[in-house]
Amino acid sequence: MSVRFVLDHEIVVLEAADPTGSVLEMLRTRLHRTGTKEGCAEGDCGACTVLLGELDGERIAWRAVNSCILFLPMLDGKALLTVESLGGAHPVQAEMVERHGSQCGFCTPGIVMSLYGKAIGALGAEQSVADVLSGNLCRCTGYGPILAAGEAAGATPRDDAQTVAALKTLQGESREIRFQDNLAGHGRVAFTPRSADELADLYLNHPRARLVAGATDVGLWVTKQQRVLDEVIFIGGIEDLRGIEETPEGVKLGASVRYAEAQAVLARLHPALGELVRRIGGSQVRNAGTIGGNIANGSPIGDMPPALIALDATLTLRKGGERRTMPLEDFFIAYGQQDRAPGEFVDSLFIPRPDEKDIISISKLSKRFDSDISAVCGAIALRVEAGRIIQARIAFGGMAATPKRAKAAEAALIGAAWSEENLEAAATLISEEFSPLTDVRGSSAYRLAVAGNLLRRLWAAQQGEAVSVLELAHG
User: Fold this and answer.
1) 42 exposed, middle or buried (CB, 10 Å; 0-12, 13-18, 19+)?
2) Which of 337, 357, 364, 429 has an alpha carbon within 20 to 30 A of 107's alpha carbon?
3) What is the pLDDT of residue 469?
4) What single DSSP character describes residue 278?
5) Which residues of 379-397 are buried (b: 16+ CB within 10 A; e: fewer)?
6) pLDDT on residue 151
7) Residues 119-144: pLDDT tens digits?
8) Distance CA 260, CA 316 (A)
């Protein structure tokens, strides 16, 4: 079966589409749009940035994404723009030339597409130019001229009437895409269900299939590990898994809500959550990756689970027509193992609204500020009344085989006076409770030291003392 999408107002039909073939490879080898470059093939450098559009009523909702880890079926029923779509005369391009924003030029097409997304009001366009470019790396310019070009370009809304009309002809149909892999000697198949009910039935019949939402991690399995995925179910287009509900009690997020879509609502829940999302990958990763996918993946260095666990979030899973809800922390059993049965998938997440008096600190420690993996991610949520700590939840990522609570430190704090001495005593218990590994991101000793220091820094911040300018804590 074919993959169908709209490119520059025209419908493109790709026959014999490899379910895990990349959009980048297709652009360069099949459509000969070589402006889009391959730099890292892992969604880190942004040289391959394109804009992906979805029909939203009578408009197109655009977002900048990395085409190197975007699988071909994820294009189905959507619109695509590449650097060639701009024609060479757009204000973003003119300003890049005028301000000498390009030197070697390899990264330039991706940078132009990120800035173009901001100019036309794509997802995340309300962010600063620097944040929009957080997923674009440049070795030559020092970024100053690029930032200046982005500021000078301004807003330039698109006329998408033709694209809207073309997309309407591709909507509403679930797809099954089969591909005969001559090298592997067998066929592979991808499904693109359009509803959660359809997904539930499909996953019961194909429980070994890989569920893919944003492909920000699974994409690397293919590009870096050369893994072959025989059955894939793409769930990013399921509208009823993308709901966001804000109530006085808290926030409910559907499993396929993307980070960029959730950032504002999470920031309203607590500012530290919004700042944490700002540090997750680059803007292209946040525009594709989903909170539910990150949880289902179960990585011990995923940034959101420690914060969500500290805030006592609950997770709802679905299998067929049945749903079950559990504390998020109980979902993670061991490294690579989660409490999820065959045919069962993440349905939604609920985060209780913190009390205004709660003391909450969320910190991500990494070698780079932007677009980097955490060495340690720590989240602390305390409730203090009448000078005593009556509730304490402390969770870490990067410290164990799963996101894990520091229960000994919590126990030492609950009922204790709110004092520097008691936070110091709790901090020393962390080294007795955790045995983190040593890897390229940090040694075991470093991880233990900084985890304890997060409690010490919380006390300092609450006393009005100066802390790192990169501190994400809010109280």
Assistant:
1) middle
2) 364
3) 46
4) H
5) bbbbbbeeeebeebbbbbb
6) 95
7) 999 999 999 999 999 999 998 998 99
8) 21
pLDDT at 404: 96
d(Cα 382, Cα 418) in Å, to the nearest integer?
Answer: 10
CB atoms within 10 A of CB 158: 17
Query: What is residue 177's predicted lDDT score, i.e. its pLDDT?
Result: 73
Give the whole-angstrom CA distance, residue 147 versus residue 130.
Answer: 7
Residues near 356 by beta carbon (within 8 Å), at least 6 away in sequence: none
Q: Does 277 score more than 50 pLDDT?
A: yes
Residue where the block lists tokens 């809304």: 157
Report whether 154 contacts 41 (CB < 8 A): no
Mean pLDDT to the nearest integer, 214-243: 93
Residue 455 gets which letter from DSSP?
A: H
Classify residue 31 as exposed, middle or buried by CB count within 10 Å of its CB (0-12, 13-18, 19+). Answer: middle
Backbone φ, ψ for residue 471 (5° rounding): -65, 135
pLDDT digits (tens, 9 = 90+) for 301-331: 889 999 999 999 999 999 999 999 999 999 9
Q: Which domains does the chain have, with CATH numbers?
A: 3-167 (3.10.20.30), 174-238 (3.30.43.10), 356-475 (3.30.390.50)
Residues shown for the chain: 475
- Could you report the per-residue pLDDT of 381-419, keeping only the tens digit for each? 999 999 999 999 999 999 999 999 999 999 999 999 999
How far is residue 82's CA from residue 88's CA, in Å, rounded to a whole number? 11
Structure tokens at 147: 């930032």
Other beta carbons within 10 Å of 330:
12
Q: Which amino acid is at 241?
A: L
On the question of pLDDT at 180 being above 80, the answer is no
Cα-Cα-Cα-Cα dihedral of 334, 404, 286, 207, to 10°?
Answer: 30
Q: Give the closest residue to 23 by CA, choosing from 287, 223, 177.
A: 223
Contact 400, 387 (CB under 8 A): no
Nearest to 396 by CA among 301, 295, 262: 301
